[in-house]
């Protein structure tokens, strides 16, 4: 199994398109810090992006896609010094409908599609913690990946039409957008990148991650994983720990718990969950779950996450 596929599936990603805004010169939008990930799709013209904590603004243009994985505050305008047009707080809302905000006036216009991505427990996944504060996919680069370009065009087209079922289509397209942005961004990364993303690019460690995600119920030993990727035990353990941020068996245990949590939320019986996540008995599973999560499986099913059980950020 592709480990990234399994992680993206486990994220319980929810996408939402907030609005389409059309601006005429001069203009500037300030986006407040959000608890969710924020994204923008740009069309027509050029402008500047100023990100909280960055000294210099970035040049942006038509066709660009911007993703803020941690919801950092930022401004977008035709010039960094342009007067403030509007302050916007983008946060995922399952019930708020998509809106079009046109601005009257003469002259060239620039359009921005704005939306958000919501994850139930983002701190539980090392993959998310490896992302930068902003991912910028330039329009020219996005068009190099045909499926990515087609998705962006479809999202822009669907947002401009009032067809039956538009809200559902827009939500599904935004979820696909997140996945495609991540795929393109991973391809951008240099061979010298570090962390979980580097682990995906490392053939041996990526293969080991795939084995763990494919069969979390198997009683993996470090020796078996090392042999499967043709490395010595010590070399494999050291490389895995350096790239992923924790030892192979620690990662395996954490991933088993993540899978168990999803199954508990879906009301799967504990006696069914235990063998699916590698435990021979209910008792062994209950003990492991309480040790790792802090509460019993039954209490987790009833109350949910007690505190944020985070992975170390790479």
Automatic annotation (TrEMBL):
Keywords: DNA-binding, Transcription, Transcription regulation. Gene3D superfamilies: Homeodomain-like. InterPro entries: AraC_lig, AraC_XylS_family_regulators, Homeodomain-like_sf, HTH-like, HTH_AraC. GO terms for molecular function: DNA-binding transcription factor activity; sequence-specific DNA binding. Residues 206-303 form the HTH araC/xylS-type domain. SUPFAM superfamilies: Homeodomain-like (SSF46689), Regulatory protein AraC (SSF51215). This is AraC family transcriptional regulator. It comes from Reticulibacter mediterranei.
